[in-house]
Amino acid sequence: MSSTTLTLATRANASRRGNKLGRRLLIISAWLVFVLFLLLPLLIVLSEALKQGLGTFFSAIFEADALAALQLTLLAVGISVPLNLVFGVAAAWCVSKYEFRGKSILVTLIDLPFSVSPVIAGLVYVLLFGAQGFIGPWLREHDIQIIFALPGIVLATIFVTVPFVTRELIPLMQQQGTQEEEAARLLGANGWQMFWHVTLPNIKWGLIYGVVLCTARAMGEFGAVSVVSGHIRGYTNTLPLHVEILYNEYNHVAAFSVASLLLLLALFILLLKQWSESRINRLKANAGEE
Amino acid sequence: MSIRRFALAALASALITGPVVAAETLLNVSYDPTRELYSDFNKAFNTHWQAQGNAAVTIQQSHGGSGKQARAVIDGLRADVVTLALSGDIDELYKLGKLIPEDWQTRLPDASTPYTSTIVFLVRKGNPKGLKDWDDLVKPGVEVITPNPKTSGGARWNFLAAWAYAQQKFGSEAKAQAFVGQLYKNVPVLDTGARGSTITFVNNQIGDVLLAWENEAFLALKEEGGDNFEIVAPSLSILAEPPVAVVDANVDKKGTRKVAEAYLNYLYSDEGQRLAAKHFYRPRNQAIASEYAKQFPQLKLVTIDKDFNGWKTAQPKFFNDGGVFDQIYQAQ
């Protein structure tokens, strides 16, 4: 008896030691991957950008075409993210609060942009709105420019960022169920009051998290936007496209300077994300206690 | 609330500071290696245009692989003028889009090609593989960098230059096809445009030789310093004639015909020709060409019209779906 317990104990000890080793190895390799594949390239971007000093760095960022690209990027984000927010909330609401036919198809379709290559997304709009496309001739007659202009860039951005808000909200809203809303209705709240005072506060942090992810992706989108942009410098080039142009013009320092501007914007968004994530976790913990 | 307010503020600020629309704008849709040329030329043209008592014009530029750019104009990119790599691409504007008349090429001197160029080899300093002529490119172990002829105009000139060499040397089309097929076996990457290939060769250090526009090769030497590369002129190459055209459907809609025509005509002026030469294009104007004769290597040049019966024959034969290039590439 005693000998068996002893061997069991040593075995447990050994496996714990093994676990410890395994854990260390895993942590080290995670760090290694992080440093080699993420941190190092980012540092290279920064060091290349600052190679010729702060003066060249700032002159690349404040150059007219770069500023126009920044403006266009912010404008595209400023239009597409609010639209995605409204659509995302509406879609998540439908899916999580109602039962209807074709619901699973709708949920699958919302995920479509994750699986479709962004280039295809862009080409779809060219086929639809291009001069040779489906409604192109009508658009031309009425002098409406969709692709190779701001509307096309916004459409392409919306297409690739549609799932972010919805995907974030559906599990959250499903978890919360409909009880609180039902209670609000019983107490006499109208639909809008219920949404504003019950639903929205409940999903607030999840919503912010989704919006932040959506913004990050919208700012960095290259493929889809590249197809519909027309690459008119100073007019239809977004920041990522501008980086490519500068790089192709042997203008490495400027390319990396503008790239690091994108990087700074991304880092800022990452901080926002971290903050909203922590708020969500706190919310979940509170819900668990009750 | 705060989210909404933030979004509104962001939107409002973006709208207020959005791109300012100038009185008259001209969009020049061009191919890859002309970026530097037109950035200089646009300034010169604006000075000239204003000196004639006109208001300043905002000239917008778009660059990319020549075939891809033509496609964008057909799809609705509102170019006032196109300055592409070869007339075959501008022909498509007539064929697919009816944006220009069929005889567009007769509207300006020299078949609407204000400057020419040719195809040369760019090799690494000291020419370590000893690449002197087209024969050397088909040897095993030589890596050749050239873009995709489907999307790049320069790549089509490259292809035809190699073809012309083989045809003259071996005397038959079948042998020329075998030779060019051998050459493309040595191509590790096909970029979509000439500039992409240059970056692959110069910055990413891939390949032993870049088949390049002469102007692109000189520019690479200038930008990256002459210490790392040198230009090799093969015994025979092709006269590359990049054409220009006003896009009638667009200028008539926008009311920019006058400035668009003046813009292209200015390419033929002495100053336009000098700017072309400065950016390593061969000027059409003989007097100015002789001023710059020293900077260009002398080599035997075939032409698209005499040796290939023009782009109208060469494009479908070699580069359309199922053409010679497809046969070569699918065979691999």
Automatic annotation (TrEMBL), chain A:
Domain of life per record: Bacteria
Protein name: Sulfate transport system permease protein CysW
Source organism (scientific name): Pseudomonas guineae
Subunit structure: The complex is composed of two ATP-binding proteins (CysA), two transmembrane proteins (CysT and CysW) and a solute-binding protein (CysP).
InterPro entries: CysW_permease, MetI-like, MetI-like_sf, Sulph_transpt2
Keyword Transmembrane applies: yes
Subcellular location: Cell inner membrane
Sequence intervals crossing the membrane: 25-46, 66-93, 105-132, 144-165, 207-232, 252-272
Cell wall biogenesis/degradation is among the record's keywords: no
TrEMBL record, chain B:
UniProtKB keywords: Periplasm, Signal, Transport
GO molecular function: molecular carrier activity; sulfur compound binding
Pfam families registered for this protein in UniProt: SBP_bac_11 (PF13531)
InterPro entries, per the entry: Sulphate/thiosulphate_BS (IPR034408), Thiosulph/SO4-bd (IPR005669)
Signal peptide: 1-22
Subcellular localization, as worded in the UniProt entry: Periplasm
GO BP term, example: sulfate transmembrane transport
A GO cellular component annotation in the UniProt record: periplasmic space
Family of this protein: Belongs to the prokaryotic sulfate-binding protein family.
Name by which UniProt lists this protein: Sulfate transport system substrate-binding protein
Originating organism: Pseudomonas guineae
